[in-house]
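Appendix C reproduces, verbatim, an entry submitted by the partner laboratory led by Prof. M.T., so that reviewers can inspect both the input and the predicted structure.
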Amino acid sequence: MNFFERQTQVRKVSARLVFLFVVAVVGIIVVVDAAAFLLLGLYEQGAGNAINVLIWITLLMLLVIVGTSFFRMLSLRKGGGGKVARSLGGVYVPEDTTDPQLRRLRNVVEEIAIASGTPVPELYLLPNEQGINAFAAGWSPADAAVAVTRGTLERLNRDELQGVIAHEFSHVVNGDMRLNIRLMGVLFGILALAVVGRIALHAGRGRNGMPIVVIGLFAIIAGYIGLFCGRLIKAAVSRQREYLADASAVQFTRQTEGIAGALKKIGGLDTGSRLRSGKADDVSHMLFGEGRRFSSMFATHPPLPKRIQQLDPSFDPDELQALQQRWSSRPPNGLAEDASLGLAEGARGPAAAPAREQERIPVSPAGVVAGIGDPSASSYEQGYHLLRRIPAEFTDKARRAETVVPLIFGLLMATADAPRRHQHATLTARHGQDVADTVWRESDALRALAPELRLPLAELAFSALRRREQNELERIMATIGELIRADGMVDVFEYCLSTLLHTELHEALYHRPPWRERRQRLAGNEHAVATLLAVFARIGNDDPRAGQAAYETGLSRVLPSASLPFAPPDEGLIALDAVWPVLDGLHGAEKALLVEGVVLVISHDGVMTLAEVELLRTVCALLHAPMPPMATRPGDVAPEPDSGTASQPR
């Protein structure tokens, strides 16, 4: 099952959830209406009066259940994943932290974010939780947050931490976070009916209040029956998604010891994966491990021994007892294990030779499409090495709020003197002389940065940039627009950087894309498809005839019956701004077909240029189909390990 098929599956699960919610609401209303009909003596009144009373009761129930469900989902969506993390006592982990445990955590999260093609999420620590646990929350990858407990930091070594974080990123990539938010909203709405019933119990006290008391009692009973059914649904959905996330983490890291080791430590330590927070039940279906002790009927996760055996068939559940005895007096220490296993955070390796702007990169169209939303061990290696190749002076600035903005501006400074001076004047007018001079110096230093490292550096900077105030972010985006127009042209890197930043910041601030979300079909939107393919064909081919041949190859795959001429838009890359609202609304299978067509266009000559790789990753990001990094030089392609337990970069 590829990424697009998993997205379709999540939508089907969401549709079933809505259906079951409707059934539960109808059942609850029928119960309460029946109680009102009998206890209020409506059968003794005229039919018209009885119907009016029942209509008002029904409307009140709908307002309570549907209204509170919608309000809960909206509030969680507006707050992003960070709101969920903070509600459990989460403390934000600074991008430039120097604490050894937190630095290791940040490094792992940044590596996996780059490797999976998703924005670096907000990162939180639950400092008062000693159990080993973690969760990912949010409405979209751009506003996602990952939270880990103190026990996770202290007890897990780097491989185990990597396995847990890869598990959580699977939830981010596969759309589970949005499903989890909907589950929380549904349960909140059903529970609200029980709260209304309690209010009715108090309001009905006194003379002649018995019918109201009884109706309130029925509302409480109906609400808790609905909650019982809702929790069964939540548990069933969660268990299914947990198996998928475990398998995805193993595929991503290409070793089972990490995530299996984390699960064994949960089983071998007294604290297990339990959370002390009173709100643990609300997020139980989001957690890496069980946050509470539930009966098997309500368990949101498969049994721990079964999860371990899925990863390691030779595992004997009796091993957990031996681990409990060993760790009862001396619990494991993650950093100490890192030192003994050679996993400690080390210095970055020597910088590899940079790729030239037009260096040719071998490509397999089928491999590119299959890798979307489905990072492998080689993706992690590629992400790891990309970050290690970026000089420390730049990564340090990308992680600090006071230096990240000049760094981003510096990436966009021209090399020619005239447009460069125009950009400096623009910066002076908008941000002051000091900022403009800092950007000038920053751009001089950034000239030594390999071209293929520019977008990864910008992706790393997104986390610190996102934490600035909304009005300042809007001013920064306006400045970026002026900087890239300074020379009257927009090259591929400038377009990719500005478009990605604008889209990701917009989604982080407003929790929706910059365009209206609407379902679309390829049929009826042929012009948007043709524009996208024509832009790619023009970028990758100086010869118009070669460009036309590449364009026709891609078009025949996406729209086999269409006859659209090869007509690259006069406005070049800017013409793509009009196609994103259409193409992002396509169904998963049609998105897959579109991406395959794009890859056929740019691989028509058998290779890709760096510019084509950057634009392809941007297209996939805007389609919300995250694409792992590709090797930007032939030597970057790491050989696939023969064993599922091969060692990984540290």
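The CA atoms of residues 466 and 505 lie 6 Å apart. Additional entries are available on request from the coordinating office.
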